[in-house]
Amino acid sequence: MSIFETNVDSFIPEIWAAALDIDLSARYVFSSPICTNRDYEGDVRRGSAVVINRLKEPVIESYTGVDMNLSDLETEPIKLPIEHAKAFNFAVDDITAVQAAGALLDQAITQASIGLVREADTYVGNKIDAAATALSGPIDASTGNPGDAIFAGILTLGRMLDDNDVPQEGRYLVVSPAVKEALMKCAAFSSAANYGNANPIQNGVIGSIAGFVVQLTTHLPKTVGGTFKAELYAGHPLATTYASQIEDMETIRHPARFSNIVRGLHVAGAVVTEPKALVKATVDWAA
Questions:
Q1: What contacts 14, CB < 8 A, 6 or more positions away?
Q2: Which top-rank group of organisms is this from (predicted)?
């Protein structure tokens, strides 16, 4: 049974909005807490902005036993614009709803959730792509076992994060379906614990490798031609701040038909505050 009420007559906006937000949270990949931090999430509204005072690193000096120099903590203001706004707006015919025994509305809200996640992940993914440092060249998966070549590339991405003093705990890796397939044939990929059990897999998590939680998505940033800009994104949630909210959720009677109009508005904003904690890589699949 779904988390949504299936009876329009029992519609309570706050309950439906909360249920939709829970459903979104379970489906997010780039927008998930695995890839982003929610340090500034609150009562966000479309067109508003949150100012983040990013703390600069305190001055470190040698101690010689004499009075130390006193320095002030410095902050850098960064704006988190609530610029992403996506909505759904559909009508449920009374007769159709009765014939479907309420299931139609339930399915429609679930499909709307999937669509909102696609839009949010595309939005956040493009922010991450623009800020991430790329591997010096593509991972060569054209010969031998592609999974082994990709694993070696993942180790290099990890080293790039190490060089930037990015924390080890909490690192993530977002991959394309083709990379997932190759990794599943790689002995280093410790995904067995995520399969064959009764626990639901959320946020696209498919396993772990080399200290990264691995997530699968089909919503990687794409070029104008439709190809992926990169097929692996590695990073830490400290790099990207994300805030979102179901700003409005309501149902009204259609003025000219025997049906109910159901509509909702999802607003969000994302900003990269620590680009040093984001890296990416492409894969050369050519034989």
A1: none
A2: Bacteria
